[in-house]
Fold this sequence. Notes:
The chain contains 17 helices and 22 strands. Strand 9 and strand 10 form a beta hairpin.
Amino acid sequence: MKTYDAIVIGAGHNGLTTAAYLARAGLDVVVVERQPYIGGATASRELYPGFTYSNCSYVCSLMRPEIMRDLELPRHGLQVIPYDGGVTMTRDGGYIAGYRNHDQNRREIARHSVRDAEAYDYFGAEVMRYCRFIKTMLLTTPPDPASFKPRDLFGLLDVARRFHRLGEEWMYDTIRFWTMSCADFLDQFFESDLVKGHKAGSSIIGTALGPYSPGSAYVLLHHYMGEVDGSIGSWGFPRGGMGAIPGALAKSFQAHGGEIRTGSTVEQIIVKGGRAVGVALTGGVEVMGKTVVSNLDAKRTFIESMAASDLPAEFVHRVKNFKIRGSSGKVNIALDGLPDFPAIPAGCPGRAGDMHVSDSMEYLERGYDDWKAGMWSRQPYLDITLPSMTDPTMVPPGKHFMSVFVQYVPPHLADGEWDDAKRAAFGKTVIDKIAEFSPNFKDLILHAEIRTPWDLENEVGLTEGNIFQGELTMDQLMFNRPVPGYAQYRSPVPGLYMCGSSTHPGGGVMGAPGANAAREILRDMRIKT
């Protein structure tokens, strides 16, 4: 029986990133994926004739440019097309737009509050300062504060030096920021409820927090750290749908001799003599390897895919307490034409970017209250995109594809578990809400895919449908992610590593966990990168 140098579980973008780096270093690597297609939460599929759906993730910004260069992803077909702005529609027929152009942004905010337009520069400067501090850590392994290894000591010293360079005032502000709510943070700058509601949407995406919850300010920052073609904070659509990202990663991996096995469900990680030596697939097939790397989240890796006897009891206890609370849903819609949104002026770039329904902090918080009560939000936050306006290759001529990200949607309902009737009712809530802003929208619907947290867990493999594989709160970041003592991509079992978003720096289509994990694996193998 063949023994691979490394087995990677899961062909999501982080798993493929790890695999591509390992293959690039000369290792014999196989990726095993339970679905008949690759991509995980970044997959694209044709679910209606001629339409390419970005099923889960729907925009790109966080993908690290260093990874794109290292793995030559543009040469393997990846092209990210930036869009120029977004817009939030109000329930009274108004709107506020956001632009990539700084002066346009100021003028737009001034329509609602001259004071807020003046505060905009201060807000942007503060966010960018936090981003610069955090971004230097994205492609680094978190130092272990309990370790006396020189590498960890020097890593902690480096963080301390950069923190000290901020100056006394900014040091205090940074410590406050990491634990404060988005509402408190925005209140420092803005007075308009609409301006704050427009900005606050990014603080709740994918997380079981409301805008008034401590820790939600960091989630806002997490979504500001991306870039497209060097433009910081920009977002874009991969040409051909989000599946173009795993597609390019797979080509990079295969160009170095990598092997991908789809339709291969891992039943258990095999441990012999206290070391991970392979995986057992459904049907009795075993694949053996010197190293096993899991792209699954922490709970699916250590609770569902391993025997408890192979792990320390305290570690299992901590993994069980790792917070993975689903809060999101997705509705993907094939349209017979372009829907009209009368509130948005003709020519506004927001039509081709993000269209939000979140016109105040109170609106977002009331939606969060529904989630806490075990209901999907009756007045949901929606992030609506029409990527086919930017990338017509996704649809037949004259048609359009709409992606709708929905917050909040609980993984477990107060009146019982998800079933077909409840899924349809949730989809109706979303479609009815969009129709409030677009009078011709319903008449254009050809097909809709409705995805609840149950679907994200059972189809995509995201525990409770959590898109970040674990909440991005202070107690679950850096050297605490996923659990203290095991934040450097290694596990308690020699030969077993993690590379998914349950590890530092967390979720989003960035590839950083995968690249960091590959670096640590090669370090243990004494292979220079």
